[in-house]
């Protein structure tokens, strides 16, 4: 509950800030850096060290489509480091809801990367913050230029996303030549049909705000072992999509439990590890 | 006396000359072309929206009937909309009864406020009010950077009060316009206008010429729509972007080839397990030399298309 209220409140408060702030924006082309206050709000002002060498964030310098910006979170502890990766948080500093997602990494899941797609509203820094099992925080950042022209972070085909709400697919990605060196890892992609609606828009006819509806909780298991769990907000793109590497534990099934902010539950499972 | 007369005459002629010059300048600064009897259009620049071009990058037009005028898209700023309205007034004094918006994009409807009056009915696709609700506030904020404070501050989002779910006919007096709402293609609120009398089609951004097509609805929908569009009994088309006017349905061919190539590339990449970032860089590149603004929009089309085709 606590976490989902963080996503919700951040969305509401900052949306208001965005609207109120648009007049001020005209005079000041460079908006103030929100990161220091985000560190306070999201990480309770705990010290954050440089994550160079521990974690990577792959994001395009220019967002091509404001509604679909691919980002890959990479995290692999160097050999000999006995700590475990506990939690990875993705923050899009200038978005109406900056806290895009936080991923709890399953113990011994061997997850080394998660790729997903984000909405990016403005020119912004993006931060990836890792919390290790010893409680230390590490961050890396990337700057992403907003998409130009008529691109918008809203959905493109709202009827389609809504008509198939909650439909899920899992795809196992065959090992490719560049990952052949680590055959112990597998790669999979999870797709969920959901508008992940931001709810920040006012309906032109009723003048009421459309309620937000988005996937706020997601858990992925192999057998009974957690691979990762996500708490997410409206910065995750329509039809949330996660591609991740993990260490197989021999389980024959992968299982997903998701829930949206309207309280609707979505569950599915698939056989894994067969011939690809 | 003679000196005064001379001065007065000089002033008179100077005034007349500058009046003529400014009228000519106004015409040239916002040229319109009569592409069929009673049908006029302004050709937008093939460019990205900027303060310098006042957002005048889309083709916009108007159709004059015996009783009234219908405006088809209003341009990318209220300033462009006003220049367009003045150009209309140089042609006809008949009342503007309808302003038809072909879809949600700012370069086509940020000029709406220049036409706002109790006598004018704004017309759009049944999905246009929803699309404006979802995107309007964002566009006002994001286009500030491109248009500048002065141009953006007078823009107002004006949703249609007459919406088209399938097909509607508007009568301008001895002139019927057939408005057709399409399933998701360029956007999820594309509307075309056909003038039966002259066989002139205003396609909005369902047709791009020279300017690389933009996919902001459904790449498959866009590709599949080409056949249905080709069946429209038109003689010529005013594309959303590109030269006025083009032969119909030949004008669809270049766009169809582009979209088909993009879909083929994306399907191959999805099958091969490539990621979205790779697709954005590589898909559709074989068409690069054929289109303007290719690097501005093709990666975006590839991105959106990839996410859509993954669900096939």
Q: Which oligomeric form is depicted?
A: heterodimer
Give the class of chain B from helix and strand content and strand pairing: alpha/beta
What amount of the residues of chain B lies in strands? Answer: 15-25%
Shape descriptor of chain B reads globular
How far the N terminus sits from the C terminus of chain B, by CA atoms, comes to 88 Å
**Under the CATH scheme, which class of chain A?**
Mainly Beta
Strand order of the biggest β-sheet of chain A? 1-8-7-4-5-12-11-14-15
* Structural domains of chain A: how many: 1
Mean pLDDT of chain B: 93
| Number of helical stretches of at least 4 residues of chain B | 9
Number of domains of chain B: 1
> So, the CATH homologous superfamily of chain B?
Ribonuclease Z/Hydroxyacylglutathione hydrolase-like
DSSP strand count of chain A = 15
Fraction of residues of chain B in helices? 25-40%
Which secondary structure elements does this structure contain, and how are they paired or packed?
The complex is a heterodimer of chains A (276) and B (312).
Chain A: H1 2-27, H2 35-43, E1 48-50, E2 55-58, E3 69-75, E4 85-92, E5 99-105, E6 113-118, E7 124-132, E8 137-144, H3 158-163, E9 168-173, E10 186-192, E11 215-222, E12 225-232, E13 241-246, E14 253-260, E15 265-271
Parallel strand pairs in A: 1-8
Antiparallel strand pairs in A: 2-3, 3-6, 4-5, 4-7, 5-12, 6-13, 7-8, 9-10, 10-13, 11-12, 11-14, 14-15
Chain B: H1 2-29, E1 33-36, E2 39-42, E3 60-64, E4 69-72, H2 78-91, E5 96-100, H3 106-109, E6 121-125, H4 128-147, H5 149-152, E7 162-164, E8 167-171, E9 176-181, E10 191-195, E11 200-208, H6 219-230, E12 236-241, E13 246-247, H7 253-271, H8 276-282, H9 294-309
Parallel strand pairs in B: 4-5, 5-6, 6-7, 11-12
Antiparallel strand pairs in B: 1-2, 2-3, 3-4, 8-9, 9-10, 10-11, 12-13
Helix pairs in contact in B: 6-7, 7-9, 8-9
């Amino acid at each position: 509950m606590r976490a989902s209220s963080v996503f919700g409140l951040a969305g509401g408060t900052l949306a208001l800030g965005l609207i109120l702030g648009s007049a001020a924006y005209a005079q000041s082309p460079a908006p103030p850096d929100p990161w220091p206050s985000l560190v306070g709000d999201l990480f309770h002002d705990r010290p954050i060290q440089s994550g160079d060498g521990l974690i990577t964030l792959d994001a395009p310098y220019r967002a091509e489509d404001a509604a679909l910006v691919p980002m890959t979170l990479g995290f692999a502890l160097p050999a000999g480091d006995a700590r475990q990766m506990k939690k990875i948080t993705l923050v899009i500093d200038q978005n109406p809801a900056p806290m895009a997602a936080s991923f709890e990494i399953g113990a011994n899941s061997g997850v080394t990367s998660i790729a997903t797609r984000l909405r990016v509203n403005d020119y912004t820094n993006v931060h990836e913050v890792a919390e290790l099992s010893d409680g230390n925080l590490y961050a890396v950042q990337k700057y992403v230029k907003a998409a130009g022209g008529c691109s918008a972070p809203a959905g493109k085909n709202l009827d389609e996303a809504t008509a198939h709400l909650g439909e899920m697919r899992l795809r196992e990605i065959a090992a490719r030549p560049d990952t052949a060196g680590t055959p112990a890892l597998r790669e999979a992609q999870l797709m969920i049909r959901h508008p992940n609606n931001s709810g920040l828009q006012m309906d032109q006819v009723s003048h009421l705000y459309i309620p937000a509806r988005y996937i706020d909780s997601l858990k992925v298991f192999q057998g009974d072992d957690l691979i990762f769990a996500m708490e997410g907000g409206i910065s995750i793109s329509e039809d949330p999509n996660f591609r991740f590497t993990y260490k197989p534990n021999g389980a024959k099934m992968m299982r997903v439990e998701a829930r949206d902010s309207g309280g609707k539950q979505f569950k599915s499972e698939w056989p894994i590890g067969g011939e690809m | 006396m003679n000196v005064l007369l001379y001065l007065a005459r000089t002033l008179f002629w100077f005034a007349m000359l500058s009046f003529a010059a400014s009228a000519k300048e106004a015409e040239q600064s916002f040229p319109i072309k009569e592409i069929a009897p009673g049908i006029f259009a302004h050709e937008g620049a093939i460019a990205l929206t900027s303060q310098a071009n006042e957002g005048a990058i889309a083709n916009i037009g108007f159709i004059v009937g015996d009783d009234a005028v219908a405006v088809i898209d209003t341009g990318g700023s209220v300033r462009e909309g006003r220049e367009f309205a003045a150009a209309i007034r140089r042609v006809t004094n008949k009342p503007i009864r309808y302003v038809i918006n072909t879809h949600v994009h700012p370069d086509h409807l940020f000029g709406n406020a220049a036409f706002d009056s109790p006598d004018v009915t704004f017309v759009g696709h049944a999905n246009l009010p929803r699309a404006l609700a979802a995107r309007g506030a964002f566009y006002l904020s994001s286009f500030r950077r491109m248009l500048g404070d002065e141009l953006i501050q007078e823009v107002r989002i004006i949703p249609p009060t007459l919406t088209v779910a399938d097909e509607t006919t508007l009568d301008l007096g001895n002139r019927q316009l057939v408005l057709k709402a399409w399933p998701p293609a360029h956007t999820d609120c594309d509307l075309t206008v056909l003038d039966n009398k002259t066989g002139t089609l205003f396609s909005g951004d369902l047709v791009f010429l020279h300017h690389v097509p933009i996919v902001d609805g459904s790449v498959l929908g866009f590709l599949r729509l080409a056949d249905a569009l080709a069946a429209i009994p038109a003689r010529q088309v005013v594309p959303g972007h590109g030269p006025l006017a083009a032969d119909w349905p030949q004008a669809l061919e270049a766009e169809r080839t582009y979209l088909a190539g993009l879909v083929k590339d994306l399907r191959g990449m999805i099958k091969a397990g490539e990621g979205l970032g790779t697709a954005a860089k590589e898909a559709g590149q074989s068409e690069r030399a054929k289109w303007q603004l290719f690097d501005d929009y093709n990666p975006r089309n590839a991105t959106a298309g990839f996410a859509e085709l993954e669900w096939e």
